Amino acid sequence: APCTDCSCSSGKETDKDTNNTKKKDNGDRSFIPKIFFGTRTHKQISQITRELKRTAYSGVPMTILSSRDFTCIHPVVSSSGSSRNEMCVELLEGKHGKSCLYYHGIHKLSEHHALQSAHRTYQAWDIEDLVSLGKKLRACAYFAARELMLGADIVFCPYNYLLDPQIRESMEINLKGQVVILDEAHNIEDCARESVSYSVTESQLRAAREELDFMVNNNIRQKDHEPLRAVCCSLT
């Protein structure tokens, strides 16, 4: 049976604000932590959410954080390969006089889940479910998933969303006082190593050295560029 401390016990979603707090009878606020569930791959998230759907906690508010590679539904951006992030940002900033109509429709997805919860038909979902619904409602699944994080009790995401400080900042993830579960945690060491590693070819190093030579020879911020040139020379 469901526990008595979370929103699933009452049969309806507990009122929440953006700080994930709940008012007590005496007017005070008690902090309710979120559960951040990190996995190695997106496929494992699908397996976890499928199991969650079979439990008494299927109706608990949740979301899945993932990259644009899995959630972008814009016909041009989603087919652009490695430049999805850049094209998405350009559309959001309106650089070329165009904007993303899917981004302006993210409230449709949020309202859909709110209605499901109100009618007690809310169930755990997968990325594919959100993307499919996003296409139907013409709403961005990527940003909708981030917006749903505000009211979610459980947040599923890959390891690097929890380990990489830059991703945490960009996704507005604050782990202080929260519950963090790492599935197959023995993979954390490799994931942490990958997050601070970078692969570079010899030709890229030589090209960088040539550019830095030009900078130094033309007295362009020599103090900054000379040490960088020395690093390229030592590596090559």
Automatic annotation (TrEMBL):
Pfam families found in the cross-reference section: DEAD_2 (PF06733)
GO biological process, one term: nucleotide-excision repair
Record GO cellular component, one term: nucleus
SMART domains: DEXDc2
Keyword Hydrolase applies: yes
Keyword vocabulary terms for this entry: ATP-binding, Hydrolase, Nucleotide-binding
Organism of derivation: Steatornis caripensis
Gene Ontology terms for molecular function: ATP binding; DNA binding; DNA helicase activity; hydrolase activity, acting on acid anhydrides, in phosphorus-containing anhydrides
Gene3D superfamilies according to UniProt: P-loop containing nucleotide triphosphate hydrolases
Name this polypeptide is given: FANCJ protein
Lineage: Eukaryota, Metazoa, Chordata, Craniata, Vertebrata
Annotated spans, Disordered: 1-26
Composition skew (Basic and acidic residues), residue ranges: 12-26
Residue ranges constituting the Helicase ATP-binding domain according to the UniProt record: 1-232
